[in-house]
Every structure is written in structure tokens, then in C-alpha cells.
Amino acid sequence: MARQDAHDGGSYLKGLPDRVASGEGGVIASSGLRLLADELLLPAAVLKRSALETNRRWMREFLQKTGVLLCPHGKTTMSPELFAMQLEDGAWGLTAATAHHVRLYVRMGVKRILMANQLVGRANIEAVASIIAERPDVEFYCLVDSVRGVVQLSEGMRRCAPGRRVSVLLEVGAPGQRTGARDLEAVLEIASCCAANRDAVRLSGVETFEGVFTAMADPDAAVCGLLDFLGEAAREIDRRGLFDSDEVMITAGGTAFFDLAAGAIRDPRLSRPVLQVIRSGCYLTHDSSLYERSFTRILERSGHLGALGRFEPALEVWGHVQSRPEATRLIASVGKRDIGSDAGFPVPVWVFSPGRDASPRSCQGEASVAALYDQHACLDVPADFKAEVGDLIAFGVSHPCTTFDKWKAIVVVDDDYRVIDMVSTAF
Length: 427
Description:
This protein has about 425 residues and is an alpha/beta fold. It has two domains: about 20-50 and about 310-425, Lyase, Ornithine Decarboxylase, Chain A, domain 1; about 95-280, TIM Barrel (Alpha-Beta Barrel), CATH 3.20.20.10. It has helices spanning about 50-65, 80-90, 100-105, 120-135, 145-160, 185-195, 220-240, 260-265, 290-300, 400-405, and strands at about 45-50, 70, 95, 110-120, 140-145, 165-170, 200-205, 250, 275-280, 315-325, 330, 345-350, 360, 370, 375-380, 390-395, 410-415, 420-425. The strands form two sheets. Strands 1, 10, 11, 12, 13, 14, 15, 16, 17 and 18 form a ten-stranded mixed beta sheet that branches. Helix 6 (about 185-195) packs across helix 7 (about 220-240) and helix 7 packs parallel to helix 8. It is elongated.
């Protein structure tokens, strides 16, 4: 069926009024729109420029302090404008999750791509193999964690890109968790299979994702154990001469434990040079719950990092107070279609009454989300909570990934919530 736009002038972008709804050119930046004057079509997602700049500076200083490289996970935002910020800040490359991400990154001009996943399936392998064959300027890595995976990938490369090789990282994992070889015997079997298929694959390093332990009450010991196994795997592969690259990549480090990962991969004791890479993606926007708690633990573990300051939550979703049917129940016009809830409910952070308040009032710790529907949030509030129908209310997110994917465009605001820019997404 042919697509029909809902409006003759083209498609609307959620959150933007008609005069700027197309998001074209510099129209947004020069629009003069003010969120606090109720000039956006709420609900609307916003990024605070000052918080983005604080988080960029923090990570730059952390990388300088530790000497590790950053290949941030792009799935968090899938935003070319935010990717450009990260690359401008010196990111070594960008991490992808799927073959679709890989081809999008290439179109965006990204030259180093680490696919932190197994590349399986005929169409997926063909898509990436064609990039390897046609774009020698693109440096690409993916993961393997089984003999079958190595064989399937090798066969696909011979079929689709004969004479070319794909660089692979051997993934290690923890029993009962996600992907990855579970013991040293499996690691060496996979590494040997890579060596036997060296015409198609190049074993270039080892990888793990310690973020599988984020939900544990006391995860540090489990994280350190997995990182120790990562180092052991690298040393044993190296001792047996099974790496097939001049440099060996050792990579770990989601957003929750990047301090531990950076420490663990800095001293691998291998016979050849090492690329030490962390892959934190959520640092740029941070959040108001899951990663805020994780970051507090990072500062408690690594007290010297406190001198760098703190990450600040940059991403907020604003809506209206739509109803107050009871003194202690408030309904806001923000729901699952607007904000993620996979890692906990959104966090009410600000309330603002146009015409009455000079600036947003903090409501953290005072209001809480009790239920989230498609288009509504139900909040528990004290009976004396100052908010009326039509007031503006802002929510911080928990785990930014599943809020970004609900927006094709997100406006950037200054500290007075004046719209100064916009970023797009490519989910």
C-alpha cells in the first residue's frame, strides 16, 4: 500500500508545533520555542545541552586518566548528531548490535565498527560481508562464541567476499547469563577453529559484557570474576599463538561497571601490543535512576574519580498534568509510547505552573509513578502537592535506550528550556 502523509505539507515530528514540525534545516534552532511557555506539543522529549557537555567532559578526562579507548555503544541513541559528538571527543569507533546498525553506521561515515554480537544468519552475514568487500576503509569487528558460529561465518565470507577476512573477537561469558564461552576449554576450541579458518576469519582479540550482573544486589565480585576470566582467556590464546593480528583487542565495559573494566584490561600481560577498549554508551545522556545508582557505586568504588565531578541526566520527557481525580492521585500525559519502563518506572523530576512559577520546582522524592499506560502515567503524590490540570511535569528516565527509540527527533534545550537545536534518531 502506498504511504500517505497525514498532512499535505509532509510528516509531523512528535512534540513539535506545526510551524517547525518538519524539523528542516535550521528551523528548529532559530524557532525561539520555549518549553516553559507551553509552546511544544507535549509530551515531548528534550536533551539538556549543559548536561551533555558535562558528561562529554567527564568521559574525556576519564579516558585521559586511564589511557583506555572508548567505542561507545550506538544503540543507546542511534543518533547521527550524538555519534558525531562522541567521535569529535575522540571515540576510537562505535559499537553496533545488529547488521542493520552496521550498514547505518557506514552510511553515517563511521570508519571503525565493533559489532558486540555474534554475526549469524545468511542475510546478516551477506550484508556485512558486502561492506567488508566493498569498503576497505571501514574497520569491522564482530564476536564469536562457538565453533558453529565460526564455521557459519567463515562459509559466508568465502561465499560473499572471497579472499577477504573478517576480524573476530572471542566472547567469554558467565554460567547462567547471556552469550559467551563459559570455560577455558571452550575458549581454546573456538580459538583453534578460528585458526583453522584463517582464510576467512582473523582472531583479533577477546570480549565480554559484564553488564549482565547489573541487577544483582552486590555484583562487584561477579564482575571482577568475569573480567579475570577475560584476561585468562587472552593470555592462554596468546601463549598458544592463536591470535592472528598485530594488535590484540581486549574489550569490556558497559555503562554500569566501566571503572572495573578499565582497570582489568589495562594490564593483560600479552606478548604483543593491546588495544584496551571500553564500550560505555549511556554516559552521554546518563539517566535519573538505573545508571545514576550505578554511577554512585562507581564513585564509591573509585573515590579518586570524584574529582572529575558527576554525570548529569540530560534526557527528560515532559507532559501535562491531565487530571487530578483524587488529592493523592495525579495523571500525566506521558506513557509507554513516550518513555521507557524496562528498567523501572520513570522518575518525576520537575513540575512547572506557567504564569505562576519562575522556574521548574523539583518533585524528586515527593511524587512517584505508580502505573504507566500507553499514554498516561499515574502518580502518587501528597495531598498538598502543588500541581493543577494544565501544569507541566517532567520525567527522568531509567535506562535511556528505550526512551530514545520512541522519538524520531529530540529537541536540545538550554538551562531555561529554550529550544536551541535538535537531534534525529535512526531506529
